[in-house]
Prior knowledge:
five-stranded antiparallel sheet; single chain; Glutaredoxin; mainly beta; four-stranded mixed sheet
Amino acid sequence: xxxxxxxxxxxxxxxxxxxxxxxxxxxxxxxxxxxxxxxxxxxxxxxxxxxxxxxxxxxxxxxxxxxxxxxxxxxxxxxxxxxxxxxxxxxxxxxxxxxxxxxxxxxxxxxxxxxxxxxxxxxxxxxxxxxxxxxxxxxxxxxxxxxxxxxxxxxxxxxxxxxxxxxxxxxxxxxxxxxxxxxxxxxxxxxxxxxxxxxxxxxxxxxxxxxxxxxxxxxxxxxxxxxxxxxxxxxxxxxxxxxxxxxxxxxxxxxxxxxxxxxxx
Length: 265
């Protein structure tokens, strides 16, 4: 549905991420039109595969993609995130999990990937591959291809609870250059069930999985192995899970990612 418009040793010092905690800002990009860019080759060598689905409860073609994401979220080597966009809210149902910030992240991907459009359900894998999220066989094939190419040292991202705050460990392989990578903190809920009385999905009870409730930039990283302290206030609302994405500036490829289940932490 198209839019209407060998690791280095870990440092023992701990630094608190300050000042850079702010909601990711909108770029005000115009809506872009249907993807023509082919799936890119996997560039990451290790770590979980990051699946970012752009979806909406107002989109009749989205429920199959939501269901597939829910299945994949259970895989131990996957971090699944569903961003509910707001640009379908005008057709009769306002998605309660949607926001402009989610739509803006999708637009930034469209700009970075030089796509002619953004659409739902759009699945972005590792920040570099663009697929229709409901095309099960293609999505599964791409996941297996990426799994086959994983291996060897890379970037380890570990997130732990530390009292009311959180501890982020970044351990980069020797010689790797992650200078100026951007750190994103993402809060998500495992599952929501919603009865939809209006819009394209009227009369349906929808199950949404890995629902992103907030995401924000923590600033930029100097690329050196380090232990960072994230204030608890960075999590703007209670969620089931926190994830950290280490991403090339400008919504480029994701270098690494880690997550923390807040039910067990």
